[in-house]
Amino acid sequence: MLDKLPGKRISLPDQFTGVVTVESVEDIDGTILMRVQTSAGETRDAILERSQVEELLTQQEAIADTLVDADSFFLFMESIRIKTAFEYDPHFAVSLSGVRPLPHQLEAVYERILPQVRLRFLLADDPGAGKTIMAGLLLKELKLRHAIDRILILTPAPLTIQWQDELKSKFAETFEIVNSGLVKQQLAGNPWERFRQCITSIDFAKRDDIMPGILQVDWDLTIIDEAHKCSAKTQGDDLRRTGRYRLAEELSQNSDRLLLLTATPHQGDVDQFHNFLRLLDPDLFISNEVNPEVLKLKDSPWFLRRIKEELRDFQGQKLFKERHARTVPFELTIPEQSLYDEVTRYINKYLGKTKGRKKAVVALARTVLQRRLASSLNAISSSRQRRQKRFRDLLEELRELTPGEQQQRL
Q1: Cα-based torsion angle of the residue sequence 221, 224, 227, 232 in order, rounded to the nearest 10 degrees
Q2: Residue 353 has pLDDT above 70, yes or no
Q3: Average of pLDDT values for 352-361?
Q4: Hey, is 372 helix, strand or coil?
Q5: CA gyration radius for the chain?
Q6: pLDDT for residue 77 is more than 90
Q7: How far apart are CA 383 and CA 272, in angstroms?
Q8: CA-based torsion, 187, 190, 191, 193: positive or negative
């Protein structure tokens, strides 16, 4: 009797609003434990008495014997047509979305990424190319082809709402932002199994108490935005992984499909770039010497990068105006020059006596302060006030410590 329920759409008005789909049924000493999926894609449990289940089956049989009216049958056939439309319309997701994609976006999604048998791809176009749009088109197309169900998107914390808004407004895809507040409200079970389409901060996801729950789910598609922040460095025979890299590495093995998004894939460190590529395929990118043939921009099955100057619209016109950089000399007034010199002397006096790696930090501090000074008096004044506050806070902290603790703190 119970084996007739899985896959059925039933109504449980006393437990759920709307119709739910039965995923599994288990008889526990006469009590029926039923796992269902709501219309929002959430997986829930329902507990029923055997008599209630028998009544449900009777209702199902009665519905099966009922003739369907012409309008309902038309809607059913229309739904079947939409489900198979991608076989006849190569850009079906574009037709259903609220965007007008540009040529380079269509090329990336339909010519480079979708044809991959094993989707592991690094999309590294310049800022402004619309990588979010391309990711949305990809996941929409894969969903229309019934290739994916569970989707995880990792982004920097400030971008989670932006991703959620764009996917909802442009692609009619509802994603749940999973954060610490939502996890705390989950009294039992794994919150990552509750929602089939999740967006979360990569720094939240990498936490030791959060990562295991994420890895318990078999994700069909994982998208990592600003993926270059998942970095690792080789030191001798050891690979020093950051928390973000460990998370990305585990998800790469745990996900059927992986899409990495970044505008800065190579940050001048060959070793770090090689370890970054290993997220796509650790068996392929096993050597520190990355074969340039693998990364040909025109035909690489793993990598695509276009700079702004290459992007065109359908009329062949450049999308971005040409940039012409030139240095405009100017002279500081006597008070401005005096202040500039005093700030430089201050940095050299209090930060200049350093060696090794700290010299680079001092050089960066000098550049930042001089830039702020050149920007405006308010900018350098704000920097000075923040620095004074940090020193005051440090002094207050030191006063409460013993001499030995003070030395350790400094």
Answers
A1: -70
A2: no
A3: 67
A4: helix
A5: 28
A6: no
A7: 32
A8: negative
